[in-house]
Amino acid sequence: EPEVTQTPSHQVTQMGQEVILRCVPISNHLYFYWYRQILGQKVEFLVSFYNNEISEKSEIFDDQFSVERPDGSNFTLKIRSTKLEDSAMYFCASSELARVGEQYFGPGTRLTVT
Amino acid sequence: RKEVEQDPGPFNVPEGATVAFNCTYSNSASQSFFWYRQDCRKEPKLLMSVYSSGNEDGRFTAQLNRASQYISLLIRDSKLSDSATYLCVVILTGGGNKLTFGTGTQLKVEL
What we know:
The structure holds two protein chains of two kinds.
Chain A: E1 5-7, E2 10-13, E3 19-24, E4 31-37, E5 43-50, E6 53-57, E7 65-68, E8 75-79, E9 88-95, E10 104-105, E11 109-113
Parallel strand pairs in A: 2-11
Antiparallel strand pairs in A: 1-3, 3-8, 4-5, 4-9, 5-6, 7-8, 9-10, 9-11
Chain B: E1 4-6, E2 11-14, E3 19-25, E4 32-38, E5 44-50, E6 55-57, E7 60-65, E8 70-75, E9 84-91, E10 100-101, E11 105-110
């Protein structure tokens, strides 16, 4: 069964450093997403991406965040200058064009900012 | 008021029991509804979509009440493997493809 993959599984970084989280969505999916979940809290939407551009973003997704599809398979989330409050689990997801509510999530990257 | 509200639980039930969860949403124009399941420290996984007429998938039954703005999930004949957090998820009208999650209801099925 096709699945979304994410690397790394755990990233530890110092405050102020840049991090890039990587995802490989399911190959025939056209919508890609990033969500985050702070420990003990609900899953929160960050951004959606379609046709090589951002289709929607949340208030959390400020100028410190960016997304990119550098090639035909990878989808990345960059945090330019990490803050302590960026510590969370970051989930990538993808969906088919016709079933956007049925999103398939990757296993997540746990980001720890020290 | 939260966009999607759920009782956090935990609901502790014996194996074989029937258990029901409710969820309320604040935006009456919400358009799509889902139940996702999340195991501890894992990713959310789609359990089922919720249709206006109600729908069933094996031991799981989902209902939508638009007038009262709530969604329910019924699990019959609970298994130990059903232990997880059940997430109520909504797509708000005008919300694009953004999933709006509730905080989840924790279920523990015991021997």
